[in-house]
Amino acid sequence: MGLPESFATSVDTPLTIPLEAFDVEGDPLYYYGEILDSNPDLSIAIDQNAGLVEITPSNGLLGDFTVQVGVRQQDSPFDTETFTVSIQIPEPSSVVLLGIGALGVAVIRGRHDAV
Q1: How crowded is residue 70: how many other Cβ atoms within 10 Å of its Cβ?
Q2: What is the DSSP letter of 37?
Q3: Percentage of the chain modeled with pLDDT above 70
Q4: In this structure, what is the dihedral angle of CA atoms 62, 115, 33, 71, given to the nearest 10 degrees?
Q5: What's the pTM?
Q6: β-strands 79-88, 6-10: how paired?
Q7: In terms of Cα–Cα distance, which of 9, 30, 10, 3 is closest to 115?
């Protein structure tokens, strides 16, 4: 599969990762996924047809979590890879507002949290 060692997502934002695998004989492939750091606010779902894993944090969960995914042919052991998913607060973006009033131009700098 050749996955990176880590992935990042924002609070309460699902992360979808394609599990790229190919069988030279064209046999069906079966995918597996498990969150090794058990947490009720982190779920994993596997789309067997598309080979996609979706990791979904909820309830404001933050932190680093270890995930293991795998692929196999029928009746073969899984070829697995392990990686870290980092759930972070999104970086705020700066917003500059220009206001024109009776005394001239005012520059107001604010912060806006991207969701």
Answers
A1: 19
A2: S
A3: 79
A4: -140
A5: 0.75
A6: parallel
A7: 10
Q: What is the pLDDT of residue 71?
A: 95
Looking at the chain, how many residues does it have? 115
Sequence-distant (6+) residues with CB within 8 A of 7 are 15, 17, 55, 83, 84, 85, 86
Nearest-angstrom CA–CA distance, 56 and 58:
7
Contact 97, 31 (CB under 8 A): no
- Structure tokens that stand for 98 in this block: 């220009």
Which residues are bridge partners to 9 per DSSP? 87
Burial level of 9, CB count in 10 A (0-12/13-18/19+)? middle
What is the token pair recorded at 2? 């050749």
